[in-house]
Specification:
about 400 residues; alpha/beta; 8-stranded parallel β-sheet; 7-stranded mixed β-sheet; about 30% strand
């Protein structure tokens, strides 16, 4: 049995107060003990030559970040996957402090979509960061807010189509983004919830009432709040209004481009850190520098860390990492590091229904750990107690 002790200047578990001069004891990839480094148990283990010691007493330990909405990076688009390409992204994500992620798709021709789902669900577990499953972004969207999605293949929700997708993916279909104003939405959302699929609302022209109804049917929250959805207008309130007044989870792309930082601050003040979830919505051009990159079959441009489609000037995802999002949410809102941990780990695990295994540092959960320096830069990342940023996997 491999036993490891992690020592830190402070441990932010995501559920308790900051533990100063803290320690974690990890066995077989799971947290078996958490408490002060001065405890007799820790002192005894440190004297055992068979115990692996990770000395981060100059740094802070937080739960691994979860990127629930990413389309790829380092030149990889998840709609054109191989296992090696998905693992390439997972390796990149580990350098950002990400220990879990979802593979987000684009709207495709139905037969190509099924082919993609078959591929993504057939791969073995990724090594550097945990692939939680597939986020099907579409195809049940309103054409007014299709954004970068292919208009030709937008369609109303269909329970039989979802049944086929669930069979194809063998339980790997984790989440779907859809517009709730479409015909058949109520039955579809209820079916998804009964099947364990997280339903996020977006790419939608829904009214506030239609959106609130969808939440009552079981929808969980909102995909990239403000972007590709009906806005908050005082005489014609839309999906954004419903998000601000409801208890649904809200994704935020905090790159300073998708949402003005002042609006991020206002959203934080209104919604609070218990419902916000920072995401990247990253595209293949992440970590590739300025230049041209194909995303969803469309040639896009990355310039000054901003991605866009040059013909329409539409935003084409982001190029930030989760570590950037973590720092930005504190910078834009003035929130505490404890609240930032909620918005980058805890809330996301709850929304995705994986909080029994990850998202916080608690007894029995996976030792998914990020080590941060005083500027909240990633020092090391550990997936189930194994370092994924230094050691060979």
């Amino acid at each position: 049995m491999i036993v490891s002790v992690f020592l830190a200047k402070q441990v932010i578990s995501g559920v308790d107060a900051i533990l100063v001069d803290g320690a974690l004891v990890v066995e077989e990839g799971r947290i078996q003990w958490i408490g002060p480094a001065s405890d007799e148990k820790v002192v005894s283990l440190l004297q055992d030559e068979n115990v692996r010691v990770y000395d981060y007493r100059e740094h802070t330990i937080v739960p691994g970040f979860i990127d629930m909405h990413t389309h790829g990076g380092v030149g990889v688009d998840f709609i054109e996957p191989t296992y090696e390409r998905v693992e390439q992204v997972a390796k990149c994500l580990a350098t950002e402090g990400v220990t879990s992620f979802c593979t987000s798709t684009m709207v495709l021709r139905p037969d190509l979509e099924k082919e993609l789902l078959t591929k993504l669900s057939s791969y073995p577990p990724t090594k550097h960061s945990r692939n939680l499953g597939i986020h099907l972004e579409g195809p049940h969207m309103n054409e007014k807010y299709h954004a970068m999605m292919d208009l030709r293949y937008l369609r109303n929700p269909d329970i039989n189509e979802m049944k086929d997708n669930l069979e194809i993916t063998k339980g790997r279909l984790k989440m779907i983004t859809m517009a709730p104003e479409l015909e058949g939405a109520k039955e579809f959302i209820e079916f998804c919830k009964d099947s364990g699929v997280v339903v996020m609302l977006g790419h939608s022209n829904a009214t506030t009432v239609e959106t609130l109804n969808a939440l009552s049917w079981g929808a969980d929250g909102f995909t990239h709040l403000y972007n590709a959805m009906s806005p908050h207008v005082h005489r014609n309130p839309g999906m954004v209004t419903a998000a601000l007044m409801s208890d649904g989870y809200c994704e935020l792309v905090v790159d300073g481009y998708h949402i003005d930082p002042n609006v991020v601050k206002l959203t934080y003040d209104v919604v609070g850190s218990d419902r916000l979830m920072v995401i990247t919505d990253s595209m293949p051009g992440k970590k590739m520098g300025d230049g041209r990159i194909v995303f969803g079959g469309i040639e896009c441009v990355v310039r000054d860390n901003k991605a866009y489609e040059p013909k329409s000037n539409r935003i084409a995802g982001s190029t930030i990492g989760m570590d950037d999002a973590f720092r930005n949410i504190m910078s834009y809102t003035g929130c505490s590091v404890v609240e930032a941990v909620k918005m980058s780990s805890v809330n996301i695990a709850k929304c995705l229904q994986v909080d029994h295994e990850t998202g916080s540092l608690e007894l029995g959960k996976f030792a998914d750990i990020v080590v941060l320096d005083d500027q909240y830069q990633v020092v090391d990342t550990f997936l189930e107690g194994t370092c994924t940023t230094r050691e060979s996997l």
